[in-house]
Design brief:
The structure is a single chain. The chain is of the alpha+beta class and 457 residues long. The chain has 13 helices and 13 strands. α3 (24-41) crosses α4 (48-57), α3 (24-41) crosses α5 (62-78) and α10 (212-220) crosses α13.
Length: 457
């Protein structure tokens, strides 16, 4: 049997029906890879469609494709990936709060997966099922996709080699830029790219808000160039206009939540209740600090006290982002800007309360004259999680201020846990130009509209 495999030839009808159009060179290299893998795997050879995916991912360089496929086969064996379809049990929190699922097919017969990313509580899912739980869920989806491709090919007149992904970003905000979550997402993307190459035929991004370029800047560098070229972006409501979804998805299959007639069974998502969080689920991995305690700072505030972070900006159009949780009591949050360069006063060695006053008050400055409020005051309540951003159009000093006005009946101090960072204008502008050059129109991503924040609870 094995010797016959070595002399294996490809019937032209079989190629056309199940593999698609191949040049003589591509046929030859498919046969070469098949023989090499047969030698390595002692006769256990993946399907021709699998071999082709890895060949395409490496531009039909047989040596590189063999290396990539060999690594993937070892990975599948180590992590028992072949058993995922039969053994994976969907956690209850995923059933209730994960906003993704398979939804019919696109106009090319590709299986269509819908992900309502803007409604996904990344932090809640990670704190309830962990990074490995989210990875297993993703792998289960990918394995389902491979099975659906086989079924679609059998049901159609031609080979269906990839699926279509429809991503709805309605609701996307700075909550989704929680850095531990982004790191977990990047790890998952890298694993999928390495083991499921050339399975993504088209990615349709709809209802992309103005905060999306920041997330795209972080994520896109980890996506293969060939895969990235398959992304189509739609801002605002233009996804139902000519050149939009109707070019790729049958009209009667447009999901109802996007204004179509087709009932979607994809969960709408929402915030995962903290009661479902599992202690210790989300931990550090391989020395990379993923736990929020490693990057978040905790602060206690008494009545009338403030905590401030001063960010001196010398990079116009850079983006200031923040993410904080109010752990006890109510706290007022405001962002100010001054043309003057500010610095924190040294801590009072006597233990006085001067450092608990605003640096703006200490200088005796007046609002509207020496400094300006660039984000309106937001009163944040006990238990709330707040995210936001501000495009720092001009240079100057920006002050993130948290203030406690009242204490609870037990006179306990208010508590806060926060994280902030600045995304440089170079990266931000780069993401904008790359998006705008290949989209149907990001009208809602104009420079003017991006100058304000995207606060989110």
């Amino acid at each position: 049997m094995m010797k016959r495999d070595y002399k294996y030839t490809l019937d032209s009808e079989y190629i056309k029906r199940y593999l698609g159009e191949l040049t003589p060179m591509q046929e030859s290299r498919l046969l070469q890879l098949r023989k090499w893998i047969a030698d390595l795997q002692k006769g256990k050879v993946p399907s021709d469609t699998t071999l082709l995916r890895f060949l395409r991912a490496r531009d039909f360089n047989v040596e590189k494709a063999r290396e990539m496929l060999s690594q993937s086969l070892l990975w599948r064996k180590k992590h028992q990936v072949d058993k995922i379809l039969s053994e994976y049990e969907t956690p209850d929190v995923v059933k209730q709060y994960f906003p993704g699922g398979w939804h019919h097919h696109d106009k090319d017969g590709r299986p269509l997966y819908v992900l309502r990313l803007g409604q996904m509580d990344v932090k809640g899912l990670l704190k309830s099922i962990g990074e490995d739980g989210l990875l297993k869920l993703t792998l289960h989806v990918c394995e389902e996709g491979l099975k659906l491709l086989e079924e679609a090919t059998r049901a159609s007149e031609h080979a269906i080699q990839s699926w279509c992904l429809l991503v709805d970003l309605d609701g996307l905000n700075m909550r989704h830029l929680w850095r531990p979550g982004v790191r977990a997402l990047l790890r998952i993307i890298q694993i999928v790219e390495a083991n499921y190459p050339e399975t993504m035929g088209r990615v349709l991004i709809v209802r992309a808000p103005r905060v999306f370029p920041i997330l795209w800047t972080i994520v896109s560098t980890f996506i293969d160039d060939n895969t990235r070229s398959k992304f189509l972006f739609y801002g605002g409501k233009d996804y139902l206009q000519p050149g939009g979804l109707l070019d790729y998805i049958p009209k009667d299959l447009i999901p109802d939540f996007l204004g179509g007639p087709c009932k979607s069974f994809v969960h709408e998502g929402g915030l995962v209740p903290k009661s479902l969080y599992v202690s210790g689920t989300f931990t550090e991995r391989d020395g990379d600090p993923l736990s929020e305690d490693s990057i978040y700072r905790s602060v206690s505030l008494g009545k009338g006290q403030v905590h401030e972070v001063i960010v001196v900006n010398r990079d116009p159009q850079s983006v200031l982002t923040w993410d904080f949780d109010v752990l006890r009591h109510d706290i007022a949050f405001t962002v100010y800007r001054s043309e003057h360069e500010l610095r924190h006063a040294p801590a009072d060695a006597t233990g006085g309360s001067e450092e608990q006053k605003s640096v703006l008050e200490q200088k005796g400055w007046r609002e509207g004259e020496h400094f300006h409020r660039v984000e309106p005051t937001l009163v944040c309540h006990d238990g709330e999680s707040i995210q936001g951003s501000h495009v720092m159009v001009e240079c100057g000093s920006f002050v993130l201020q948290w203030r406690c006005e009242l204490l609870d009946s037990a006179h306990r101090a208010a508590q806060l846990m926060y994280f902030h960072e600045t995304l440089t204008s170079h990266h931000y502008k780069g993401s904008m130009s790359s998006l705008q050059s290949g989209t149907s129109g990001f009208s809602c991503l104009s420079g003017k509209s991006m100058a304000s924040s995207c606060p989110s609870r």
